[in-house]
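Section 4.2 – Deliverable D4.2 (structural model, holo form)

The reporting period included a commitment to supply a predicted holo structure for the target in complex with alpha-D-galactopyranose. Inputs used:
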Amino acid sequence: MPSISFDTNNLIFSLQGYNVSSFIGIDTDGGLRHYYTGRKVETFTNPSYVMTHNPRVFAACPDENDPAFSESDVPMVYPGWGRGDLRYPALHIRHHDGNTISSLKYAAHRIESGKPELSGLPATYCEKSDECTTLTITLRDNVNKIEVDLLFTVFSNVSAIARSTLVRNTSEHSIEILNAQSMAIDFLDSDFELLSLRGAWAREFEMQSRQLQQGVTSVHSNSGNSGHFFNPFIALKRPDSNEFQGDVYGFSLVYSGNFLAHTEVSAYDQTRVMMGINPHNFRWQLSPGESFQTPEAVMVYSSDGMNGMSQNFHHLYRTRLARGKWKSTPRPSQANNWEATYFNFNEEKIINFAEHCKRHGVGRMTMDDGWFGCRNDDTSSLGDWVVDENKFPKGLKSLADSVRDKGVEFGIWVEPEMFNKDSNLYRSHPDWMLHTAGHPASHGRNQYILDLGREEVTEYLYNCLEQVFAATKTTFVKWDMNRHMTEVGSAVLNSDQQQEAAHRYILGLYKLLERLFKRFPEIVWENCASGGGRLDPGMLYYMPETWTSDNTDAADRLHIQYGASLVYPISSIVNQVSPAPNHQVGRSTPFAFRNAVALFGSMGYICDITSLSDEERQIAKHYLDIWGKYNSLIFNGQFWRLSPPTNTRFVSWAVIDDAGENGLLAIFKQRARAAAAYEYIKLCGLKNNSLYRVKMLSEPSVRYRMADGKKIPWPYADHDAIYSGAELMNLGFALPPEFVHDGDYKEFIYSVTLVN
Ligand code: GLA
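Output (structure tokens):
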């Protein structure tokens, strides 16, 4: 059981979670200090050993009797503004008289088992109250009469600390919150590299790392959603850490809108980390008696490198953030018609697809964009969630029944947050647009955004969607969102509240999703925003899986899936086999390679499965069989990144079950190389003294190799041998010799099975 205690002599809170300890103290001025977070330390009694007040020339000292104390160089837990700490603050408020000072001092605290819900926001949860312990520290600004609750939750089996903040206006006047971060933490040194996930449409989840130096380094989103450009995640890693060892602190925001992940190295070499709603273009009016709840930020600590960090995130997010029946249960494999038909389909084609799904052993047919209104391209009909009777004269219900009659499940695509100008919805409610009056409205893909902060808009959407999902008895919904927000404003907010519109939108979205989630517990919800544009922990709370990228090229997917796995469990990652040449990058990779890459997540097909060749059909069957046999392991095992995509030779990863007994090892050759060295992959997560059988699964595409322009049998195709765990983890698994030169883009998938 995780524990939190308060040492009344030394005024120190001790947070003891699974494999992580944290100490927070109350300083002589009543301010909170962060002493330590990291590897387990059970007791800590002497704060002055870690931190004494240093007289700093030029620093502002708030106490006339103490020339040594200044806020400018102490490690804060939730810094306010205006009293000597010149770093960026976590809280910035404009009070009724125009002052913007926040001086936050300890007022009270509460320790309780369990974890409270955050009103209207997604958050991690516990299923039994003894799984988590929560500390709430209340800080008070005695001059401005503002209270702040800081929540810290530690968990029994994950090395994580969940943080959130509630700001209460206990004054008699309205205030304007200019910035309220979810969390802040100051580390006592700055010897860190900052790791983040950057990208763009179809190029999501690229890992980027840089050494921290004095000053600010941050990643953020301004696009209204968490966005393609950066994921709401950063990690601070010690320079000597890597995938397998060393100290890494990961930070992840459970939010789907504009975010900021901020680091600042101070003049005294401390490092501040803050995470929360992006304060740029944000303001929130808070009347007397009202409170503002920030989203949750999750900090994960690992002494076992980045794999350890990711495994903590995976475990927490798969089991205590995702919800419902499908959170970690393998979902049926699916075929989606998008890259096969785009908008050009009708009843006959969809039913034909369903028939082929059944034939190939695919569990679900998902009908993508183009089934509603009069949508034959992307210029019209978003907002009109009624079936296009030209394409489906017998209606949606009949279509869904016919798909099911073929023996597969029926899934459907929607993009509810949008409307086109060419739609009945726009014609009757142009003012429902998320928009700032008087400015021309920018479009994205010809579409405009509905103001989900308005009750009548979400009510309309709920009613339309409820009807479609109930009538079709669909068991799968792909929920898309395909543009950035611009000219953000709301027709129903007063001028002082216009900068609340973006956050109100996200709150409205969450409310709508919660209602639908509760109404349709059987549905598998797939999150999508032109691929990974809103792949974030907030959406994971409602939707257990995400279409990771519109880039379906298997070679690029290695990078994308590798990067996404830094934070997101592979059970939440949707991979689909696409046509060759690939529609996004024009590259051709072998069909078997595409299948093998898609295996590691929620597997499916986005190519035309009605026109597979005999050989492709065989390969698809082979991989669907592997997926069927191993999907529970893939969803629930520990994911290990073994060799990164920056290694131009090969990418490797493995999934090993928690007991260290069964696993899958994947090696994906990127580029062949003449006269290459011997190469090895060191496995992880096995038992040293046990024996394992390592057997090649990825036939038939590597059954031959090229020599002197001819195909010759490849002797390693039937690899099947016994190794000890220690051998596989220390000597490594030797890659077959021919691995070096038989062409690019080859897959080598092995089962790893305990034999004693
Ligand atoms: C987005 C999605 C695609 C597809 C199209 C349909 O781009 O990411 O998978 O659904 O919309 O318009």
